[in-house]
Design goal:
Layout lengths: L5 H12 L2 H45 L1
Helix pairs in contact: 1-2
């Protein structure tokens, strides 16, 4: 058997071996990891970009008064 390497090679090996429960568990684990990563990216982007924009808008509104 040729091992293609990486996550997809491992999932393919599990699928061919008939161990679908472990395959489903692996896919769910990867999906959770991807979702967690996306949530963290959104949080960091929000803190870096949206926060300063709000502060700048507040400063502009305060300066107008």
């Amino acid at each position: 058997m040729v091992y293609s390497g990486g996550l997809f090679g491992w999932c393919g090996w599990l699928f061919r071996s008939g161990d679908s429960c472990r395959l489903i568990g692996a896919i769910c684990s990867v999906q959770i990891l991807i979702q967690f990563t996306m949530i963290m990216v959104i949080r960091v982007a929000t803190r870096l970009f949206i926060g300063p924009i709000r502060v700048a808008n507040f400063a502009i509104e305060t300066a107008r008064c």
